[in-house]
Design a protein that fits this description.
heterodimer, A: mainly alpha, MetI-like fold, 77% helix, globular, B: alpha/beta, Rossmann fold, five-stranded antiparallel beta sheet, 8 helices
Chain lengths: 222, 234
């Protein structure tokens, strides 16, 4: 078992999930509460990684974050190294790749909150930030959990973006999916079996946790 | 003094109403679909009219022509609708305290206790909204909306889940409280007994138009005839 790859995968997925939650809560609130006509375009943009082939996304990011573009060169100037083929670059790629998996459950959760509660909060003087933090987030906490688990698992399982953007650098960009690919390429099916089983186990446990929490008990669903 | 002149079109429904409520407590009476809730939502600032203005004691709350629109939370207005809309993740006490976070803890607790006592709900403070009956939830919703001491109170059939006696008792206590605190109150109802119970001015709303304003017996003369005719021997 490649423990280094396992640790790196969990670190990448945890960091991506944490950053995604911070980004997607205000984004989802804007999509649900906002009234601008541009929001439809923003929602479509946030859903784009869902239909874009991962290798295409990885290729665009590789070019954008590499030394060929001004953006890539300025980031390299700031960090001292280019984002492509680094762990930080992988985090950026994962955030974009898993964005829809975090945004969509939270948007659905926020949209399901009874609008009369939002009216009541507005009448009682709550501004948008208080409405989000004190009304929407607590009432949509199951959707937030679903978003976190989906984003985490999606990052754990990503392959195309990682390979394109990160390559296969042990300790920096070699995740479990890459390890599995390498094992199959080397015909080491016994090791591949163990890696695949671990990835499967992670998914089953996490999804089981979502459904266990989401299941109403004794009709007392808040 | 509460004045308004409003024009609002939503789909096929057209509300056009202009009035001045000189009385501190005014009942808007009308059948379902007459536009009572629409009118109250415009007063509250939850919706914006196509044209018109709303003024409370000389303060302009909405003026479409001059692009004036005071946000619902800054109008010193409170609204209690038929649906209590209590926050299900907060206990009753925290629900009542939601609109008075600017007060310090001691004053906030005192205000919550005072408001719950007013609606006869002191014993409900530690309950969850899901454990309340419909009538209890409506009492708590009223306490929550009164806690910030509003200048304008909008009641949209707020006691529909209470039986007649309980509703009358609460209404008379509320009437005394709003008089003491000089709160302009507008209550929408389709129940003629509510309109007579508060002995206030009654505005009759029909199909989006205010057709009469006056004392309950005058404004509701046609309604009275309709009710009486039901009991006539044919």
């Amino acid at each position: 078992m490649d423990w280094q790859a396992l640790a790196l995968t969990i670190k990448l997925a945890s960091l991506t999930t944490a950053i995604l939650l911070v980004i997607t809560i205000p984004l989802a609130a804007l999509l649900v509460l906002g009234r601008s006509r541009w929001l439809a375009a923003l929602e479509a943009l946030a859903a784009l990684p869902l239909v874009l082939p991962p290798t295409v996304l990885g290729f665009f990011l590789l070019v954008l974050l590499g030394m060929r573009t001004a953006i890539g060169r300025s980031i390299a100037g700031l960090l001292g190294h280019p984002l492509a083929f680094s762990f930080a670059g992988l985090v950026v790629g994962s955030i974009i790749y898993s964005l829809p998996f975090a945004v969509q459950p939270i948007v659905a959760g926020f949209a399901a909150v009874d609008t009369s509660l939002l009216d009541a909060a507005r009448m009682l003087g709550a501004g948008p930030v208080r409405i989000v933090l004190r009304v929407l987030v607590p009432l949509a906490r199951r959707s937030m959990l679903a978003a976190a688990v989906l984003a985490f698992l999606h990052t754990v399982g990503e392959f195309g973006v990682v390979l394109m953007l990160g390559g296969d650098i042990p300790g920096a960009t070699r995740t479990l999916s890459i390890v599995l690919y390498n094992q199959v390429e080397n015909f080491d099916y016994a090791a591949a079996n163990r890696t695949a089983a671990l990835l499967l186990g992670l998914s089953v446990v996490a999804l089981g946790a979502i459904y266990a929490v989401a299941r109403p008990r004794g009709g007392r669903r808040v | 003094m509460f004045e308004f002149s409003l024009d609002s079109k939503r789909g096929s429904f057209h509300l056009r109403a202009e009035c001045r409520f000189a009385s501190r407590w005014t009942v808007i009476f009308g059948p379902s679909g007459a536009g009572k809730s629409t009118l109250l939502r415009l007063f509250a600032g939850l919706d914006l009219p196509d044209r018109g203005r709303i003024e409370l004691n000389g303060r302009v709350l909405t003026d479409v022509g001059r692009h004036v629109f005071i946000k619902p939370g800054s109008r010193q207005a409170a609204m209690v609708a038929q649906q209590p809309a209590l926050f299900p993740h907060l206990k009753v006490g925290a629900n009542v305290a939601f609109g008075i976070v600017s007060l310090d803890a001691a004053n906030r607790d005192a205000r919550v206790a005072e408001m719950l006592a007013l609606v006869d709900g002191t014993h409900l403070a530690d309950r969850w909204p899901r454990d309340l009956s419909g009538g209890e939830a409506q009492r708590v919703a009223l306490a929550r909306s009164l806690a910030p001491l509003p200048r304008l109170l909008l009641l949209d059939e707020p006691f529909s889940a209470l039986d007649g006696t309980a509703s009358d008792a609460l209404l008379s206590r509320l009437r005394i409280w709003t008089d003491e605190h000089q709160v302009q109150t507008v209550m929408a109802t389709h129940d003629a007994t509510d309109a007579f119970a508060t002995s206030s001015d009654v505005a009759l709303l029909k199909e989006g138009r205010l057709v009469s304003l006056g004392s309950a017996p005058d404004a509701l003369a046609s309604e009275r005839d309709r009710i009486v005719s039901r009991f006539e021997i044919r």
